[in-house]
Amino acid sequence: MYNINMEKNFCNKCGMCCTDIAVDYSKRIMYRDGIQELSETFAGILEPVSEKNGITLCTCKFLFDRKCTNPNKPEECKNYPSSPFAFLPEDCGYSGEIFVKLEDIKHKVRKFKEEILNYEIMLESEPELERLIKHHKAFIDRYKIYGSNEW
Ligand code: SF4
Ligand code: SF4
Fold first, then answer.
1. Contact 22/32 with Cβ under 8 angstroms?
2. 59 — phi, psi (to 5°)?
3. Which domain holds residue 132?
4. Residues 89 and 116 in one domain
5. Which residues make beta-bridge pairs with 33?
6. Which of 43, 89, 37 is nearest to 66 (CA)?
7. Is the pTM of this model over 0.90?
């Protein structure tokens, strides 16, 4: 799995990732650090602001003057953004880092798709390629919820 290097602190402390947090309460998921399960702890700090087509935009109750005032930040905040699929606000300092990681994954998915096509042609004479095809398909499927079938 790809992770963002949190040792490089690109955060400019704009506070924007603590507002407009998109939540689907019916599915108990949120679109923030990729698509995440909505934990009870995180749900407890959210303040719904608006709702459209089943998606609720929330802000955090602990955000004041663009600063976090929560002495007990949930894990979801300590690690954000850790996913190449993080939903970043405009001008987030991690945009470049996330873009590069995401392109890496997309490149690998495209390469695997090409290889699958080649392997399928050779499969009759080289049945052991089935294992590689399965491996590549599993990798592509891992990112299906983010649209890997279309990359
Ligand atoms: S949006 Fe990005 S730069 Fe702004 S506070 Fe969040 S992580 Fe930091
Ligand atoms: S607890 Fe702090 S870091 Fe986490 S969402 Fe709220 S304001 Fe942002």
1. yes
2. -120, 165
3. 103-150
4. no
5. 86
6. 89
7. no
Distances (CA, A) of 76 to 30, 32, 73, 86, 151: 11, 9, 8, 12, 28
Q: How many CB atoms neighbour CB 20 within 10 A?
A: 14
- Tell me if 11 is assigned to some domain: no
Contact 133 CB / ligand 1 (< 6 Å) = no
Q: Are residues 81 and 123 in the same domain?
A: no
Q: Give the pLDDT confidence of 83-136 residue by residue, as tens digits.
A: 999 999 999 999 999 999 999 999 999 999 999 999 999 999 999 999 999 999
Residue recorded with tokens 């399928």: 120
Q: Whose CA is nearest to atom 7 of ligand 1?
A: 11
Q: Give the integer Cα–Cα distance in Å for 3 and 95.
A: 14
Domain presence at residue 28: yes
Do 42 and 86 fall into the same domain? yes
132 in any annotated domain: yes
Task: Based on the fold, state whether residues 87 and 28 are members of the same structural domain.
Answer: yes
Atom of ligand 1 nearest to the CA of 14: 4
